[in-house]
Amino acid sequence: MAPVEEVAEEPVASNTVVDIAIGSPDHTTLVAAVKAAELVETLSGDGPFTVFAPTNAAFEALPAGTVEDLLKPENKEKLTGILTYHVVAGNVLSGDLSDGQVVTTLNGQELTVSIADGKVSIGGATVVAADLEGTNGVVHVIDTVLLPQ
Asked: How open is the CA angle 121-123-125, to the nearest 5 degrees?
């Protein structure tokens, strides 16, 4: 008789936008930044939130030392401003986006959506994975860190 593999049951209680990022090996830098900015509790709240989540490679593309500098406690306010620039209130699926649409981020600034040849971008960052749905919103993976003006 073949051995039976035990499959761990996933807890269904929590699959927030934060949990989605924590579960992704491509978002360890984003998770570290969210923790440093003390936004875990906020983004684990009711929402709904739409998060445009930059990959580790997107953070690595920033000038050398930028991420390390932003993670310092004295730069928490600046880091929070950058991170909230990646979040929109509401549950916005990719099918809800339209070319030229302007969305207001949680930091109060706006981002413009572009759709061309089937590719969606927001604020100049390309969406590389869309519609990762959580219990309190949706995550879209992007290839660039968006920096507020």
From this structure: 50
